[in-house]
Write a structure and sequence with these properties.
Distance between the termini: 17 Å
CATH architecture of one domain: Up-down Bundle
CATH topology of one domain: AhpD-like
Largest sheet: none
Mean pLDDT: 97
Structural class: mainly alpha
Helix content: 55-70%
Radius of gyration: 16 Å
Low-confidence stretches: none
Order of helices and strands: HHHHHHHH
Length: 158
């Protein structure tokens, strides 16, 4: 890791290498951790869709740390090994329906390439609040992935 890992207080619920990095500034960590939790817990998207969005963005950025964290969660949320492998390759054509719309929109959010046609396709599957949640989720994981890449955060020992 490019910065020294922070010593973490005993009462911190999560103690992984990302937290050891963000906790170099405890106030900033609290905001990051709060948003990290909220993009999942306050979302109107099903867990499967959330994890599909996360994997789409982090695969596009080749963010190994975030992939290590989310691949098992994606499997628990119902994504198959084949779907996970396709997302890892960036093969969004392997998906259909709402899954394809979510992955395409997440990819476009990260690339700053959302156009009206894509938005309309996604809106056939998702409500306005779900679309807002999806964009926030994709944006957050673009941030998280870029943070772990820039700081070269080490994979966690499992």
């Amino acid at each position: 890791m490019r910065i020294a890992a922070a010593e973490l207080p005993d009462d911190l619920p999560v103690k992984n290498n990302l937290v050891r990095a963000t906790y170099r500034n405890p106030d900033m960590h609290r905001g990051f951790a709060s948003l990290s939790g909220r993009v999942h817990s306050a979302s109107h998207l099903p867990a499967r869709t959330r994890e599909l969005v996360v994997l789409t963005v982090i695969a596009q950025l080749n963010a190994g740390y975030e992939w290590q964290q989310h691949e098992p969660t994606a499997r628990q949320a119902g994504l198959s090994d084949e779907e996970i492998a396709a997302l890892g390759r960036g093969d969004l054509h392997a998906l259909g329906g709402a899954d394809a719309a979510a992955a395409e929109l997440a990819s476009a959010v990260d690339r700053c390439a959302v156009d009206n046609a894509l938005w309309e396709r996604a809106a056939r599957h998702f409500s306005d609040v779900e679309l807002s949640d999806l964009v926030l989720l994709a944006g957050f994981y673009g941030l998280a992935a870029r943070y772990t890449l820039a700081l070269d955060v080490d994979l966690d020992n499992r």
